[in-house]
Amino acid sequence: MKKLLFALSAASAMVLVAASAQAQDKFKACFVYVGSHTDGGYSEGHDHGRQFLEKELGDKVQTSFVENVAEADSERTFERLAREGCNLVFGTSFGFMDPELKVAKRFPKVLFEHATGFKTADNMATYNARFYEGRYIQGQIAAKMSKAGLAGYIVSFPIPEVIMGINSFILGAQSINPDFKVKIVWVRSWFDPGKEADAAKALFDQGADIVAQHTDSPAPLQIAQERGLHGFGQASDMISFAPKAQYTAIVDNWGPYYVERVKAAMDGTWKSQQSWEGLKEKILVMAPYTNLPDDVKKMAEETEAKIVGGWNPFTGPVSKQDGSPWLKDGEVSDDGTLLGMNFYVKGIDDAIPNN
Amino acid sequence: MEILVAILLTVATAATPLLIAAIGELVVERSGVLNLGVEGMIIMGAVSGFIAGYVTGSPWLGLLAAIVVGALFSLLFGFMVLTLATNQVATGLSLTLLGLGLSGMIGAKFVGVPGPKLSNLYIPGLTDLPVVGRLVFGQDPVVYLSIALTFGVGWFLFRTRTGLTLRAIGDSHGSAHALGISVVGYRYLAVMFGGACSGLAGGYLSLVYTPQWTENMSAGRGWIALALVVFASWRPWRVLGGAYIFGAVWIGQLHAQAFGIPVPGQVLAAAPYAATILVLVLISRNKRLTMMNTPASLGQPFVPDR
């Protein structure tokens, strides 16, 4: 059922690609989205990046996108794009990894980039953002602002990216208040406003006064606004939904990366790599700090500056949940451990769902 | 006690859209028509309700628009299935596909803007009563409407002559036709009622539950509503029970998680579906009664001989 829907929308988007493939001699950058380009969150963030690319490079580049592509069924989409003369293809969701890699091997002359994955080839690079840097700042703000000493955290699926975020959040919070607690609720969906709202209500009903989220809709913030409580936006600045409730948001900013990579591909200097950039490179930016007293705002800005200066929130001493040491004093976690993270740090009274 | 009240209030909001859509579909299926387009009609109601509410600033006008658009959108299904006698399953599925796509297109400009929200009922004195105050007198108006709707549909189907006729058509459209009853006419009205209900359920999502518009925000609720109708063996009060059990288990597992009760994630995620089906199957286990309640002509195209 859903597949059919995806197939239909993919097919209609193909027509667009085909039509735009007529014009010759321009560099063609093609994008594949898992959601719609107006989903108000993750895929829209990538589409803003694509529009930024068009604006920056103007006539030299031609872009197109295919939206609502089911991850399991994405191989033929990548193959079509490769056949139709795309020079550089960006697959923007974790689940595109294997299909995209297969197609990359079949089309060695086409360049591929894959977001948030870990598999590469000579003509396939990966890119990701260090979202956890922003979550550390959020944790600090939560600990400063919460009267209850308790935050709610709404999450989608137990994958390393999400666990890394929870850990970073609690490390930030406990750097301010060592007794700070977080309640975690899994809604098993990236995007379902109703479920996310229900989860926010449950967390607030149980005494949390701040909500953080790793799901994509602004519904939890709307509930916070309604109840006179607070929270953080996700993937885009959600201030319009909760002008009194949002403290800040982690905003994805892929545009500069897209410009850099397309330029490199045009110059012939493109190389396969694994890019993982953060606040410093501005691939993620913090939405303006609002609804905060000056001293908390100042603290957030200082932490942000510290991270931009090269400091990593995963710097020891950090213990694992069971109290066993993980990072020694001053030791910084390697990227591999972070990208495969499957354990909580000390201070979280919960268990990771076992799947 | 405070937390129990809070939980019950949340359960009502989670159950209401399912209940409204399912009650509408129940009437459609009782007339012998299977409309699998519920999800599509909900999402059309959600987008049009949001736009009307946003433009006029009135959530009530938004809900009205959602109802009207839901009914009009279902007419498309009605024309195909009733006048052209197309396959109901295929037509219903395409209605869902069309609704999901079309709503995304119509609503593209309204993504990311906050809409008006229908406020909860407040009766001075009564709503302030401890415990029962907010539960009985402090819900949003659509919650009361949905319960009245269940009552109304139950009364209509089983206590009125027109309701009897509608059920007769659903059981044997040939006999009803031979008696001179306008099978197609009744079915058109039933389909439009179903569309109006789905539209209202959609409007509830985008104007009460989470006042915003985003693509696919119905997130499969139409399919749950369809399942509720079948497992409730086409009885309105069982549909209400099913919707509230589903809502209660769903909200309950969220609270269990927040309390830190260690239950495997998959079990929690599956719990609302499993519990609802289990309960409804148990209360509907009388085979003869279930057969009696199943509209015998369900899903069969009807072409009147001339």
Write a brief caption for the model:
The complex is a heterodimer of chains A (355) and B (306). Chain A is α/β, with parallel strands linked by helices and 355 residues long.
Give a verbal description of the structure.
The complex is a heterodimer of chains A (355) and B (306). Chain A is an alpha/beta fold and 355 residues long. Chain A is 40% helix and 19% strand. Chain A contains eleven helices and 14 strands. Chain A has helices at 2-20, 42-57, 75-83, 97-106, 131-145, 160-176, 193-205, 219-227, 255-267, 294-308, 335-339; strands at residues 27-32, 61-66, 88-91, 111-115, 124-129, 150-155, 181-186, 210-214, 230-235, 246-252, 274-277, 284-286, 318-319, 325-327. Chain A has a six-stranded parallel beta sheet with strand order 2-1-3-4-5-11, sandwiched between helices. In chain A, strands 7-6-8-9-10-12 form a six-stranded mixed beta sheet, sandwiched between helices. In chain A, helix 5 (131-145) packs antiparallel against helix 10 (294-308) and helix 7 runs parallel beside helix 8 (219-227). The two termini of chain A are 26 Å apart. Chain B has 306 residues and is an all-alpha fold. Chain B has one domain (2-293): ABC transporter involved in vitamin B12 uptake, BtuC. Chain B has 13 helices and no strands. In chain B, 51% of the residues are buried. The mean pLDDT of chain B is 91.
Q: How much helix is in the residues of chain B? A: over 70%
Structural class determined from secondary elements of chain B: mainly alpha
Give the DSSP E fraction of chain A (strand runs of 2 or more residues).
15-25%
Helix content of chain A: 25-40%
SSE sequence of chain A, one letter per element: HEHEHEHEEHEHEHEHEEHEEHEEH
- What's the number of helices of chain B? 13
The largest β sheet of chain A comes out as:
6 strands, parallel
Rg calculated over all Cα atoms of chain B = 20 Å
Distance between the termini of chain A: 26 Å
Give Rg of chain A in angstroms.
Answer: 21 Å
Low-confidence stretches of chain B: none
The CATH topology of chain B corresponds to ABC transporter involved in vitamin B12 uptake, BtuC
